[in-house]
Write a structure and sequence with these properties.
5 helices; about 0% strand; mainly alpha; about 200 residues
Length: about 200
């Protein structure tokens, strides 16, 4: 068997094959996913507001910023961290979002049972957060970065009463948008030809 035939069976045996194109492709693919999900997150936020009634969606309405158990917004200093740390925080937040989005979906099923599109979007958002989180973890692993445990402890969000439940849902949808958008920005630093 020639050396060329052997390298087909074992690509690692040929030292001229670089993992770089595979890594670049994985980064581009994950960045594209994050960009797409950022648009979906914006649409989810708009649709969520539409289904909550007044005062949601009224000009000048500023809901209280309820804390969400297990997750916070990206810190102001996030952008100043090394890219690997940014992505680790992104992955942790994306892992914490699905259970929170599921709680919002269940509550919305009670409050807005005639909004199947919103319920489907919330269900999709939970699934998409899991997928993007897994893709970010794959990029980190390909970069040789050791994955840390969850940065945010997933917790069941709850709010007593209709208005607080709606505000909490708005906050969770907003956090989903913020973290997906932040992940897109963080990944853009690794995309060849992207910002340095």
């Amino acid at each position: 068997m020639s050396r060329r035939e052997g390298s087909l069976e074992d690509p690692q045996a040929d030292s001229s094959i670089s993992p770089l194109p595979h890594l670049e492709a994985k980064i581009r693919q994950t960045h594209s996913l994050a960009r797409l999900l950022t648009k979906y997150a914006e649409q989810l936020l708009q649709e969520y507001v539409q289904h909550q009634g007044d005062p949601f969606g009224l000009p000048g309405f500023s809901p209280p910023r309820l804390p969400v158990a297990g997750l916070s917004a990206p810190a102001p200093g996030h952008a100043g961290l090394p890219v690997a740390e940014q992505l680790q925080l992104d992955a942790g937040a994306l892992a914490a979002l699905p259970p929170l989005l599921d709680v919002v979906r269940r509550r919305q099923a009670e409050l807005n049972p005639r909004a199947p599109h919103l319920l489907r979007r919330l269900e999709d958002a939970a699934r998409q957060a899991r997928a993007l989180g897994a893709a970010v973890e794959a990029v980190l692993a390909a970069l040789g970065v050791e994955l840390r445990g969850p940065q945010f402890e997933p917790a069941a969000a709850s709010a007593a009463g209709v208005f607080p439940a709606k505000v909490l849902g708005l906050r969770v949808c907003g956090l989903y948008h913020e973290w997906v958008s932040r992940t897109e920005a963080d990944l853009s630093q690794l995309v060849p030809g992207g910002p340095a």
